[in-house]
Automatic annotation (TrEMBL):
This is Protein NDRG2. It comes from Seriola lalandi dorsalis. Residues 330-339 have a biased composition (Low complexity). Gene3D superfamilies: alpha/beta hydrolase. It is found in: Cytoplasm. Contributes to the regulation of the Wnt signaling pathway. Down-regulates CTNNB1-mediated transcriptional activation of target genes. May be involved in neuron differentiation.
């Protein structure tokens, strides 16, 4: 009986040596961290260092979405609810998010020493170009809330070619008048800093009912180790100058104004709307919404933001679902099929069936 010896070749599916780098897995992990947790950077500017967190896909083919928070908040507490919302992920996966924290406002920031000269609103706006240069972005879509909306407005007016679109939540373009100044002085005597800021962030209805959201922010602000920094930003915001915008001197990009119908700055947002170019401005007034719609109404704001992005020629195939089901009057936008954008595009009132009607010649006020 003859036994034939056969040579068998064994091919290793994976290398037996340990400790070798797996570049594919490393890249996947890095991308996941960038998308979920973000990458933190300290960006040097001509006026000091800014703390910046980068999220989403790292691509410069599209504008970055650049956010700026309100007083009493930082980028995480101001925008996490919105940009981690399930239906917002369609945008997050296609754009880079750049979250800027105002000087000394980021989590873990050391308190400034007594006598520290905090930068003005104008100076903070002048720090933003260095951030774009650091990440090699030529243009951005700005999303600002309260003080952040004011800062991004200053930046946009000074750098019109750097901003493709602007979403302003609770914007107040006016400087404080004498009556407001006197009321603020009285409030500083009778109310704590925390309560003053809460009155800025939330409606009276929200404060009276003392919702969980209000209480969580009360605890966070009052116990913040950098409370002195928050106070400096609060004083700086209250010392802001008038933006001096009107129909002849205004933003050169599409603008979406957002405010809750119970928000402290509803009247200010309405006044701002009256000053802007109606062919490039949309006004979203949210029914039954308080001072922070990005936290309490992320679904509605996400859908409106998607339409706004479409209006600039981006994400034309984006699925619009929630708002079209939940209200009769919905937002839609006119857009270019080839993806090119136009400065004259604006959000318009949508027709049923998801069709895209021509943009109107006047601003639409939409309650949702």
């Amino acid at each position: 009986m003859t036994t034939e010896m056969q040579e068998i070749a064994i091919t290793e599916e994976k290398p037996l040596l340990t400790g070798q780098p797996d570049t594919a897995k490393d890249a996947e992990l890095a991308a996941r961290i960038l998308l979920d947790q973000g990458q933190e950077h300290s960006v040097e500017t001509p006026h000091g260092v800014l703390h910046v967190t980068l999220h989403g896909t790292r691509t410069t083919r599209r504008p970055a979405i650049l956010t700026f928070h309100d007083v009493g908040l930082e980028s995480k507490s101001c925008f996490s609810t919105l940009f981690k919302f399930e239906e917002m992920q369609e945008i997050v996966k296609n754009f880079t998010l750049i979250h800027i924290d105002a000087p000394g406002q980021e989590e873990g920031a050391a308190a400034y020493p007594t006598g520290y000269q905090y930068p003005s609103m104008e100076t903070i706006a002048e720090m933003i170009p260095a951030v774009l240069q650091f990440f090699n972005f030529r243009t951005v879509i700005g999303v600002g809330v309260g003080a952040g909306a004011y800062i991004l407005s200053k930046f946009t007016l000074a750098n019109p070619d750097s901003v493709e679109g602007l979403v302003l939540v609770n914007i107040d373009t006016n400087a404080r008048g004498w009556i407001d100044w006197a009321a603020q002085k009285l409030s500083s005597v009778t109310s704590s800093l925390t309560e003053q800021i809460l009155s800025h962030l939330f409606s009276q209805e929200e404060l009276s009912s003392n919702t969980d959201l209000v209480q969580s922010h009360r605890d966070r602000i009052s116990k913040a180790p950098n409370l002195v920094n928050i106070e400096l930003l609060w004083k700086t915001y209250n010392s802001r100058r008038d933006l001096n915008i009107d129909r002849n001197s205004t933003f050169k990009c599409p603008v979406m104004l957002v405010v809750g119908d119970q928000a402290p700055y509803e009247d200010a947002a309405v006044e701002c709307n009256s000053k802007l170019d109606p062919t490039t401005t949309s006004f979203l007034k949210m029914a039954d919404a308080g001072g922070l719609p990005q936290l309490t109404q992320p679904a509605k704001l996400t859908e409106a933001f998607k339409y706004f992005i479409q209006g600039m020629g981006y994400m034309a195939s984006s699925c619009m679902t929630r708002l079209s089901r939940s209200r009769t009057t919905s937002l839609s936008s006119s857009y270019s099929m080839d993806g090119s954008r136009s400065r004259s595009r604006t959000l318009s009132q949508g027709s049923q069936g998801g069709q895209m009607p021509p943009s109107p010649s006047q601003t639409m006020e939409v309650s949702c």
